[in-house]
Design brief:
The structure is a homotrimer. The first copy, chain A, has helices at residues 16-29, 43-48, 55-59, 64-72, 94-103, 112-124, 136-147, 154-160, 177-185, 198-201, 208-219, 226-242, 262-273, 279-300, 316-322, 341-347, 364-373, 391-405, 423-443, 449-467, and strands at 34-36, 163-167, 191-192, 247-250, 303-306, 310-311, 330-331, 355-357, 379-381. By secondary structure, chain A is mainly alpha-helical. In chain A, the strands form three sheets. Chain A has a four-stranded parallel sheet with strand order 4-5-8-9, covered by helices on one side. Chain A has a three-stranded parallel sheet with strand order 1-2-3. In chain A, helix 9 (177-185) links the parallel strand 2 and strand 3. The mean pLDDT of chain A is 97. At the A-B interface, helix 4, helix 6, helix 15, strand 7 and helix 18 of A face helix 16, helix 17, helix 18, helix 19 and helix 20 of B.
Chain lengths: 471, 471, 471
């Protein structure tokens, strides 16, 4: 059985002199605290601090990176215990699920999932052999047993991971009870929320009309009117701020923004409330709501994040049987230069506003995003995202962004994960790749090493703190 | 005169430690048999086993990679002996054609053609000086003389090249007489066909209406009806299977698929038979036929290949004078996420179906193809194609595909060539580049070397065998 | 205070053996004269040969690369002395402007501006410490004092820089008085003009209708008619040729070309003269004018340059206050395969015509531009442009172009700058990057070193001379 190694130089450049520079830079940043300003962990974990379940429940069932790859190779989601929405029975024996995963772990060669998982296996659970079908049982037992120990409870891991701030993401309809419980518990871990209004600003979101009604009840505003609707959204932003939120997040199919007249806003909102918007109307409404959110951000200071370009639930059979977030979201081409113009025309020069842009379409890095962020004071660029949260993805991001936008129009790393255990692994990959990129610049005498060290610290810690107003 | 060298380390990474890993990997795969499951060689060569003609006829006149470059620099196609369709006389002296080529061989610096040709010159013909105007005569004589020797006959080269399987590509209207002759000859070379129905499924194909009639005669089916048409296509698929075919191939302008009602299919087919489809109707018809072909593949097990995105015959003057395939096909932007949805909605989760996707638009690697193939069990990705069948093209393919789709949603290499002599050169380039890519992963401690060796064997041999059902 | 170093190996590959090859190649080209066939320097400098102003006036106020980055970080353009068009007062103290710049110079880490500026500081002004707030005063004084000395006058720098030819860019309405004065002065510096007809061929250009009238007066042609208009354009081309022009330049929003009937041309031109073209009509008119310009180029031999794809003045607030060219031009997606077809259908095979294509959309390098230039004898590719005139931009250009188009369908480097002092720095970056790229090919045994040396000379000097007919 082969030893599981995490080589100290992993992901650093292989050329000797460059690697030495990279090592020196990495040593400066590897132990910095983690700031995770955008992600999808469950606040209930930290509110209740109960042990995570077994190996399969923790590491396979909720990780769409993992089961999408297995599914692509013909392994049924049912056999991985992915719960169905239509009542079809699925595998319930976690050990059998784990075996299926272990037998196919070689499929992940060359993927970031493999690096994140190996990190968790080795650093968190102390496993010393590589995962294969021969070590499947040992892995399952070690992980499952460990999880029952207090030092593997959510809060203990949070502290062990030296997480300075962790943001979750909630709908305006969420009562934030878990965040409240955390705050009242006396525990010092800084878990904050972020305001994700998709369910109440997207007319195509499931249950939109009912969501708006609920928003009205929750806030006491008359959401049957445009003014009341905006007041309700503002009201929830205030509440989220009181629970630590420093940002909003917007997951739209495109980056389209709009700047309609008040009359048009009212008319379109009325239409949306009937539940009968056309696709084009829904698109404009979402676009208008980005501009409205920007206006509110100027008032209340919340940083806007825009995450456009995912074709959600591309596979209708999988959606019908298993629901959302089952690895069937596919990126599509995303345009920013025209799409953002209505919002930018209005607020693009207002230094009170800060918008962080993300993309799943790498072709816009050098063509659109770097030029936009290299000009507009309101715009910053989020790190390479989702499918591109990977070594090569990070390399392309820096290579294609830096020359036009510099380092200081980017905002450091965020992990965007629901896989809590992998958070340090993901930040470690980012720090290594950034140090490798900087080392290359130093080795080619494009910046000095003392500057590279400053930049490495900024990319790993300072920029994210500033960009998300966590300082 | 400069020596012609094929350096043993060519294309391997230049950094010492990485190159050593790459050498070890390459040594494991360099002598594996060649499987060439997709290409455009002429089966007549192997049926009749007659000597190839002279140097110009073999290496220049049929190679659009070669004469497109010369043409781009103002060298007339006539002077290269490219036959005209309008009767304009062209150069007929092969030696003069060869001289024109030799005098301009420096234009190919940095191109894959240069690497393929040098390989053929050195390995096949034993030439030891580089090709320049000073060695043009020696080259012409050596190559032309050699071709007359039995060891340079098609079957002998096939065996010398250790080709395990070679697929050609034929229209359903082809009677496959050459394949029949090969089979009946007792020769052991495994030359199979592939089913390329473009002439009978594309209403814009030259002679479509007549082709359909011919399809009817050939099969005894009533191709005046939709049902008879499908039966005829099915019939020819069976015949192709009996001649070794394991795959179909589809060269559409876009990746669009459709899933029309039966009534709409019938109506659209009737319209197509009149020869008066609009461009939009032709597009939908082709799209529908991809879905029909997928349905037939589920029945008969033929693997589907989709090669979209070439703007054929972009240069009307060249087309008018010289016809198709004269280096004037230009890639264009190609969308997959929406285009494939009708087909995928219907069959995307059916593990009996296997579709291999290709592209000429590299922007879709990380944005569309890797995410699609990393989810749908029916989808696999073909290697970097045509203009991208090159060292840098292969590097970009692996760098942009692997992290999301892994290695095992790709299908190894295929050469797609009509230049038979270059087949080993092309496979050698692919093996070197894959080993170099893997060596980089090993050097950066992203996979272990023992894994890289397994992957190298898979990419060079095992995957293609499995993907094309040649095992 | 840190020493300002320009490392002799800067931008060369860091791997030892590759760097040694690169050094040898670079040594062959580093001292070649500079040919700058496309740029935006002011001919008045060389006509009058008066000293440049102070450090801020020379290096900050006119350089949109510099102030766009500062602006993106919230620094007001007013504080940088950028003149307003609406009368808002701006900072006038050059020393204060310089301090603002110096305090923020770290923002340029990793950008080409930083490399160009450091080169100017060190090589031109002999500065030995890096620019920070601590050295701001010393920098300002040294630069401003130097500029008063004769050896820093425009003509002296031109000679010191060993510029063999420098092209500026003028409107057909320009009387070229400065070029005339240069020619009459007896000074030997070869400063030529280039014909940029945007103001008289783009119906959306500010003052188009008046421009056409002025064109009529200037040439004595009746520009109220289509024939007279073409004659007037032809007339000015002749005049520009007499002042050294060898090329035209076209800065259109897209690459669209058209080939209308004469009747449609006349009708569309009449409409344009009313000043009421729709956006679509203006687009077609510009497209038609590209085809007309190609026809004239076949007559008079001027090389055409097409620079499409910039969304000019994207920021209306900045435009209203500061006017054009203030760092708010943003690239957008640009299509060539269909857009150029009307022009290419007509003239694409005419070897008397030479068109040099540029792009701000890197996705077209491998997909569209290299295949087009690798086929059409009329087409060549300009170097990586504007935002992509950078080390990584150049690397991507060569990596994505060369395998399909070779080196000889490219035209060497041009700087496209209005920042005269940075010209040698920019050419030096290009020579280093090209030598590095070639060294990599040599190190991987893809070309021989003797060939790489020839190519390096071609890319640095010979190709540009031939492509712009300067030989």
């Amino acid at each position: 059985m082969t030893e599981l190694m995490l080589h100290p130089d992993r992901l650093l450049p292989s050329e000797t002199s460059t690697r030495e520079i990279a090592r020196r830079l990495y040593n400066e940043v590897k132990d910095l605290p983690i700031i995770s300003p955008h992600g999808h962990t469950d606040p209930e974990w930290f509110a209740n601090n109960e042990p995570f379940g077994d190996a399969a429940e923790l590491l396979i069932r909720p990780d769409h990176y993992v089961f999408r790859m297995l599914y692509s190779q013909g392994i049924a989601l049912e056999s991985l215990g992915v719960p169905t929405t239509d009542g079809t029975p699925v595998e319930t024996d976690p050990r059998k699920i784990w075996r299926t995963f272990a037998n196919n772990y070689w499929l992940f060669r060359g993927t970031p999932s493999r690096m994140w998982l190996d990190y968790v296996f080795k650093v968190v659970f102390g496993l010393n052999k590589v995962l294969t079908k021969d070590t499947a049982e040992e892995y399952f037992d070690t992980i499952t047993d460990s999880l029952q120990k207090p030092e593997f409870y959510p809060r203990a891991l949070f502290e062990k991971y030296r997480i300075e701030t962790l943001a979750t993401t909630e709908s305006p309809l969420d009562d934030l009870r878990h965040h409240k419980k955390i705050r009242e518990s006396g525990w010092q871990g800084n878990v904050i929320t972020a305001y994700r209004p998709d369910p109440v600003v997207d007319p195509e979101f499931e249950g939109f009309v009912e969501n708006i009604e609920e928003l009205g009840s929750l806030t006491g505003e008359d959401t049957a009117t445009w003014a009341g609707y905006l007041a309700a959204l503002r009201n929830r932003r205030e509440y989220f701020k009181s629970m630590g939120a420093t940002s909003t997040d917007h997951g739209h199919p495109t980056a389209i923004t709009a700047d309609l007249t008040l009359a048009d806003c009212k008319a379109l909102y009325s239409k949306a409330l009937t539940g009968h918007c056309s696709a084009a109307e829904a698109e404009i409404f979402r676009g208008q709501m980005l501009t409205e959110m920007a206006a509110m951000s100027i008032e209340d200071g919340l940083v806007m994040q825009i995450h456009p370009g995912s074709f959600r639930n591309h596979n209708p059979q999988v959606f019908a049987k298993f629901g959302r977030d089952k690895g069937a979201d596919i990126p599509s081409q995303t345009e920013y230069v025209n799409a953002l113009k209505p919002l930018l025309d209005k607020f693009g020069n207002d230094t009170r506003l800060s918008i962080i842009l993300f993309t799943l379409d790498e072709t816009v890095y050098s063509r659109e995003l770097a030029p936009l962020a290299g000009h507009y004071p309101t715009l910053k660029l989020g790190p390479s995202w989702w499918f591109h949260d990977s070594p090569e993805g990070m390399r392309r991001f820096r290579e294609q962004i830096t020359e036009t936008a510099g380092f200081y129009n980017t905002v450091g790393f965020n992990d965007d994960t629901r896989a809590f255990l992998s958070i340090p692994a993901r930040h470690d990959v980012a720090r290594r790749m950034d140090c490798g990129f900087l080392a290359q610049l130093v080795a080619e005498h494009r910046i000095r090493e003392d500057e590279a060290r400053d930049v490495a610290l900024d990319l790993s810690y300072n920029l994210v703190k500033r960009a998300y107003k966590l300082d």
